Amino acid sequence: MRALLFIILLLTLQSCATKKYVKTRLLPEGIKSATEETYVVMDNQKKLLQKKQMVFTQNGRIKYSKTVDASGNLLQETKKKLWFVVERYPNKEPYYCKTRWKPNQRERISCYTQKQHKQNETIYHYNPDGTINKIVDNFTTFNTEYFYYTNNELSKIVTKDKNGKLVDEVAINCEAKDEKGSCLKQTRVSTKTNHKEEILFSPNYD
Predict the structure, then answer these.
(1) What is the distance of C-alpha 134 from the center of its chain?
(2) Quick one: pLDDT at residue 17?
(3) Which of 4, 12, 138, 187 has the fewest CB atoms below 10 angstroms from its CB?
(4) Which pTM does this prediction carry?
């Protein structure tokens, strides 16, 4: 009986487990917090789009995050609870997001309002090393994002619709790293629209 209860508990914990953020983003262990600034680049001029502050758990998952726009207005706030993540947005109900582990290195992330109305659902497929292989939207756009890596770095994201037609392709390049291996400056350029973004990442370690 005790063994059966242990198996049930183990399956329950696995159903709510999530991949480590530091693994999926190729970040080193030991990050305590970080700030991520996203800029759009046009005519060699940078304009801040958003700023995200993150606090990590000891095992590399996001405990708390806050994202604001260039004027400091709140875009999103997240808090990790025991069994789910609460996502708060301005002028709408909070979302309650639960992750369920599925076979073959997959996670299903479903978000609901308090009234149990589904808002979105995505399936994350992972590589054996914990990095993201692809993300499938199962609710809104039904697009799939495919992630490609070169020399253990994210180098390209290709987005296709549910019929396999190309939506966008973004080339990604890390231009600066710190001594622990975190990418401090990353550029992303759309090969379809030539839209360019620059992401500055500032980690704090233990």
Answers:
(1) 12
(2) 53
(3) 4
(4) 0.88
Written as one string, the DSSP assignment of 105-168 is TEEEEEEE-TT--EEEEEEEEE-TTS-EEEEEESSSS--EEEEEEETTEEEEEEEE-TTS-EEE
Q: What is the DSSP letter of 100?
A: E
User: So what's the pLDDT on residue 44?
Assistant: 86
Euclidean distance between CA atoms 19 and 2, whole angstroms? 28
Residue that is written with structure tokens 């046009």 in the block: 42
Specify the pLDDT at position 115.
84
Distance CA 182, CA 178 (A): 6
Give the pLDDT confidence score for residue 11 in this predicted structure.
41
Residue (of 66, 84, 63, 83) closest to 75 by Cα position: 66
Q: What is the DSSP letter of 94?
A: P
What token pair was written down for 169? 């392709």
56, 64 contact by CB (below 8 A): no
Render pLDDT for 101-145 as a digit per residue (tens, 0 to 9). 988 899 999 999 988 899 999 999 999 999 999 999 999 999 999
Closest CA relative to residue 150, chosen from 65, 63, 26: 26
CB atoms < 10 A from the CB of 6, how many? 10
Q: Which residue type, as a one-letter code, is found at position 133? A: N
CB 57 within 8 A of CB 74: no
Contact predicate 10/179, CB 8 Å = no
Residues of the chain predicted below pLDDT 70: 1-18
